[in-house]
Amino acid sequence: MSSFKFILLPKILNGGIAGIVGVTCVFPLDLVKTRLQNQQIGPNGERMYNSMLDCFKKTYRSEGYFGMYRGSGVNILLITPEKAIKLTANDFFRYKFTTKDGKLPVTSQMAAGGMAGLCQIVITTPMELLKIQLQDAGRVAAQMKASGQAANIPKISATSITMQLLKEKGIFGLYKGTFATMTRDVSFSVIYFPLFALLNSFG
After folding, report:
1. How remote is the C-alpha of 10 from its chain's centroid?
2. CA atoms lying within 13 Å on the CB side of residue 139
3. Could you give the CA distance from residue 88 to residue 198 in angstroms, rounded to a whole number?
4. In a 3-state reduction of DSSP, which class is residue 140?
5. What is the pTM of this model?
6. How many of the other CB atoms lie within 10 Å of CB of 142?
7. What tens digit of pLDDT does each residue of 20-33 get?
8. Running DSSP on this structure, what letter comes out for residue 147?
9. How far apart are CA 123 and CA 156, in angstroms?
10. What Cα–Cα distance (Å) separates residue 80 from each residue in 3, 44, 71, 116, 138?
11. d(CA 117, CA 121)
């Protein structure tokens, strides 16, 4: 049991670092995806963004380099505890599901991964909700700026959105969309962890 605890810390640190690097690399793409999905189509079919490239250009032009990372602070702040929960849960359930003769069948590995993904949504569901709302707030602000309403653009932050959701809907307001997040994270973890263990065994 002591060796199980001993190897946990480096996995958490490595997972946290990998998560931060991953957020930094892919976040602009995620922001563009969110804005393309949420853009409003005008009465004559006009769109604010015509393509991914057009969205990149307009976002960079109106909000600068850091505008491409609007909402990323929430992810970076929560990515380490998310990875910690996922890795800890996976290792814990793999430890529990290992048979007395030291074997861990593939089905048990998949079950351990699924349980890890289930535990992960405690962090990922509110993180996804806040991230999407912050990303979309940038789109709304850009539209208001383009229409000459820059003075009326509200100040929006992760803290203000969190407090508004808590005030209006309580703690459960942060967990809107849990089922969709659970479906994604559990199915991913069921495949990812056994596959990672298999590839790691070849080394």
Report:
1. 22
2. 21
3. 19
4. helix
5. 0.69
6. 20
7. 888 888 889 988 88
8. T
9. 21
10. 22, 45, 16, 15, 25
11. 7
Residue 11: which residues within 8 A CB-CB, separation 6 or more?
87, 91
- pLDDT tens digit string along 85-117? 888 889 889 999 999 898 999 999 999 999 999
Handedness of CA 57, 60, 63, 68 (dihedral sign): positive
d(CA 82, CA 71): 17
Task: Determine the pLDDT at residue 14.
Answer: 75
The count of C-alpha atoms lying within 13 angstroms of the C-alpha of 42, restricted to the half-sphere facing its C-beta, is 8
| Amino acid letter, residue 70 | R
Q: What's the chain's length in residues?
A: 203
Contact 120, 86 (CB under 8 A): yes
The residue assigned the tokens 């990323």 is: 72
Residue written as tokens 């405690």? 122
SS3 182: helix
Q: How far is 119 from 114, CA to CA, in rounded Å?
A: 9
Scan for tokens 């992960």, then name that residue: 120
Residue that the structure tokens 């307001």 belong to: 173
Calculate the dihedral angle through the C-alpha atoms of 113, 119, 122, 126, rounding to the nearest 10 degrees: 10
